[in-house]
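TA notes. Do not distribute before section.
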Amino acid sequence: MSTVRAFMDRHFLHFNSREVVDAAKAYEAHIKSGGKMMVTLAGAMSTARIGRILGRLIRQGYVHAICCTGANLEEDVFNLLAANDYKIIQDWRALRAEDEKALYDQGYNRVTDTCIPETIMRHLEERLIDVWSKAAKSGERKFESEFLFEVLGDPSLEQHYQIPKDDSWMLAAKEMGIPVYSPGWEDSTTGNMFAAACWRGDVSTHTVVKTGTEQMEHLMRWYLDASGYNAMKKQGASKLDKPSVGFFQIGGGIAGDFAICAVPAMIQDLEMEDCPFWGYFAQISDAVTSYGGYSGAVPNEKITWGKLEVDTPKYMIQSDATIVAPLIFAYLLGE
């Protein structure tokens, strides 16, 4: 029986499909050469259950940092704790406004064909308010992902799992100790919960959750270490002995734009002119090339912003990420 990888090598020969295979091969070569990889998640990839394969990719050492929207951060945990309670709408395009209102009245929040029950949001909210309030009282401050890692580390939570632990990319990230950044977290269910908790006084200060600029500083420092820049400077060398960090972008928006800006921030704002550019770039997007639209910007445009070099391997895959990302990840895993 043919493997996914063999099938793709045989049949994905031209146009967009060839770009998929080339991006996968270059990703693999980047890792084998000693490079690290940043993966960014936009859209509703966690609700689409990307964790089933992304978790494995993280555990196999193909992912070294994640930058995602607040929705992707929390929805992986929602899925972990309530997947069996989700409602799937097969003919979601045929829903009327009255049908949507009925789902709302039943306590569901729809993401395309998947309806997430409000009950799981309240379950997680209770646990988050507990860790937020304790941190506020002790003066501890953390990133959003770190608070979720704390919740995931509670032994009492496992009894509520409705999917295998291996299917959660957040659990994988926690186990492997990789950083997870979530710029714009305020625009998410848990971000809204936090604001409401501060309003009510359940959490005494907003500052318990670290700011976006603190995330950016942490990301820049992580990049210098992960790219080999710090080791290069320590050795007195003038060139990296391995590829710098690669950038695999799913979708567009803030998850991708925030993370990729770490490099130009160091080169232009910190005046670290010898900081290496991103060493690989691939994006999966269904956006067409547009006037000023980030999600539709071709990779070469990023050269002018100090993000990529002329010879950086670059791939732009215009397709549905829920189809293409699992294929590329399966290719890497040798399935």
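Switch to the second chain here.
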Amino acid sequence: MNAVLSPTRQVTSPPLWARASRLLASKDYAVLAGSDVAEAAGVYDSSWHDFADYWNRLTLDRHMGDGGRYRLRRYGQFNTQPDGSLLQLPHGPYEQPSYVNALNGGIPRYFDPLEQGFVAHPVLRGILWTLVRIVDAAQGHPTPWNIRLHPYRILARSGELGQPTPEGLHRDGVHYIVSMMVRRQNVVGGESMITDVRRRLLDSATLTEPMHTFIANDESTMHAVTAISPKIDGMPAYRDVLVVAFTRRESA
């Protein structure tokens, strides 16, 4: 079976997790090609399309401080375990302090839980353990992590822009933040930008291909994504991403 995006070059040493962690440790961020992530995570065409279909069943975010109805999502979290497993935590609200998220922070926000088929999907497990290996290596040692998952769909309509980051340039109040492209359908815009804490631009990229990934140290950078609009009016237009947040825990 072919990977999601077949690499155009032979994969060489060091492996993705080593290259990505080195960039993360030295530059505080890394942009990873979708084909490289797919290969590292062991993701193939048929399983990827099945996994991406879960974004068609996301539900409306009813907690938007700007009154927008353009964001669909679900939410769940896991802890890594000493035996190498992932423990899904009981479902509960998502909270951010208002100093981190001035638009939607300061209140508990209740979202529908992740579907169990999504949680158990081998693609998700491959993605998460690839990311765990990257952030562990960036730390220099295995680390107990809390992992929060945010699958998003941002809708764009004629006369109404879709806002991937309605709070603007921000941090998430975690240790590492990951944004992975799932699908772009009939949209323009959606450029990801990363800055240092003084808001000086470090890099920008438009995630386009499946599994194209931005990963950053959330303590030393800020990030934002520009608005999206329909490429062709009157046709469905949306941007699907998986956001994964890593927070170090005191102990396993």
